[in-house]
Every structure is written in structure tokens, then in C-alpha cells.
Amino acid sequence: MEVEMKEIKMSVNAYFKYLKRNRIYLIAPFILGLIIGISYAIIKKPKYEAHVSFIINENDKGLGSSLLSLAGQSGLFLGGGGLTPNDDKILFLFGSRRIIGEAILKKVNLEDKNSALIVNELINELKIYSYWGKDTLMADFAKIESANYDALSRQENRALDVVMEVLVNGKFFEYEALKKKSLVGQGTGILFIKATLPNEILAKRLAEEIYASISDFYIQNAVQKQQSNVNLLESKLDSVQRLIHKLESNLGVASDNNFNVFKASGKVEEVRLKRDLEILNTIMGELIKNYEFAKITLEQQRPFFKLIDGPTLPLTALYKSKIKYSLLAAFGLSVGMFLLLSVQYFRLKNDPKN
Predict the structure, then answer these.
(1) How many CB atoms lie within 10 A of CB 105?
(2) What is the pLDDT of residue 65?
(3) For a Cys-Cys bond, which of 3, 193, 210, 276 suits 103, CB 3.0-4.6 Å?
(4) Pair (282, 136) in one structural domain
């Protein structure tokens, strides 16, 4: 037992002596790693963060059905009953393909470039074309031509899916709701959008367009029923107005024809026109009342998006940490060389020639 302990001790001492003799091979990679890490941090382009914060004020009445309808149109399923207007359910809409898709199909003007679709600039900026791989559908793909979400081709739809996947998985686009610190799980009603990209103008436009897309979609669909009612009443008002104008013209002609006519039988048409005109004026009055009431109801039910803070140039630049990347590179190269030296030592030790 004592002999075995001595042998182990001698082996360990020999191993450390071997490492000490070859310490230059450990120090050199460490220094090289520091240089590589610092160089990478300096050369690497910074990313820019664009933030949008906003709050939604809305009438609670009937909002549950509105949100459920919105989720359905967005391709989402919010299970369960008793849907209430809270931050979590509103945040689900940020995962909608339509909302993000319509946002990145808007145009952007970058420096020294003509107007282009945001999605195409994202493909170039993030080198997303490398994700096509061996997909035969994308073999001859150049860029998305259509700015109409519903008119995209199969190839353009595939490209849009990949871009959205990269945005979410790469955390180039994030969203969250501010929670109250004192109350677990209770939201403040304030929501945030963050876009992080190597191009600050593109980051700013992406955050702005996603905010615009979700606010427009949410408002339009949340009051869809009330808006349809207003449009219907407006159409009926126009129809009745045209009939009144027509009857007024006919009544004027009838009155001219009955000038100096004293028999009642000769004025039947004029009397009939006056009666119809009175009826239409009564209907017109009721329609105007209902129309004004419908407009008031529409405005009361319309959600109101209030922008708190939007992105302004210049954006916050996020540079790579020189210390972090230099230490990571130095540690990685040193560990790699340490393993190589260890393997080499045990090979030499077990070699019968030695």
C-alpha cells in the first residue's frame, strides 16, 4: 500500500514537472487568446437597441369577446373561459405572424440607399440567406417583392417565416409587460417592445412598425362590430338623403304643374309627395339620432394606445465586452492546450521505448 502511494506521488510530480517544462505552451495560448478576444470585441460592429413603451386604455365591456376574436384571427388559441383584459393576453398578439409580418413588409429608407422593405434589409443585415440551406424552394430567391401580406408567393412566405424565426430566436425582437414589484403577477398596464440590430435606423423602424402594426390591428378588430354598425347607419343616411332630394325635386315640379289649379283632384300627386317627404324626414331624424349614438358608442369602445416613449436617434449602442471576450478566448485556448499536453504526456509515459 505504501509502495503504491509512493508511485502515485511520483507520477503526479512527474506530470506537474512535465507541465512546468512546457509552461510556455500554456502561457502563449493564454496571451494569444487575450489578443484575439480584444481584437474581436474591437472589430465587431455594435448592436443598437430601440425601445418603445406604451399603455392601453380600453373599455372593459365586451372586451373578452374582442380579444378572443383577435386571437383567432391571429392564429392563436387562448384556452379557457372568462377572458379578461390583462397584459398576458395582449402579449400573445405579439406572437402573431400577421402582426409581425405586416410590420416588416413596410418600407424603410437607410443611409445611402433607396427605399426598401424592412424584411429585405433584415435578410441582408442578419445574413439570413445562409439559413436557406438546401431548401430547393429558395434556390433562386433574391428578395421579397410584394408588400402585401395576403399576396405573398410560396417562396416569399417561406422567407418571411425564416426571418421571423431568426428575429425571435436570436432575440433581435423582444417584448414584455412591466410587473408591479409589490404584487406578484399583477401588471401595470405598461408594455415594452425592444428591437436590437446592427443597424440603428433599421432597429428604430422595426420597433416603430411593430408598435404601429399591433395598435392598428388591435383597434380595428376590437371595435369591428361597432364600426360595422356605424358604416351601416351611414349608408342608410346617404340613401334616405338621396330619396329626400329626389322627392323635393318632384314636389317642386308638381307644385309648378298645379299652379292655378283649384280642384283637389288635381293636387293629389302634390299631397302624396308632401306626405312621403314628411315620413322620410321623420326617418331621417331617427337615423341621425341612431348614427350619432353609434359613433359615441364606437369611440367609447375603441381601445386607446398611448405611446410613452419611442426610439430616438442616436440609439444606445451595445459594444462587445473586451474583458469578457478576451478572457473567454484565453481560457478556451489554454484549456485546449492543457488537454493536448496531457494527452501527449500519457502517450509518452505509456510508450515502451521510453
Answers:
(1) 21
(2) 46
(3) 210
(4) no
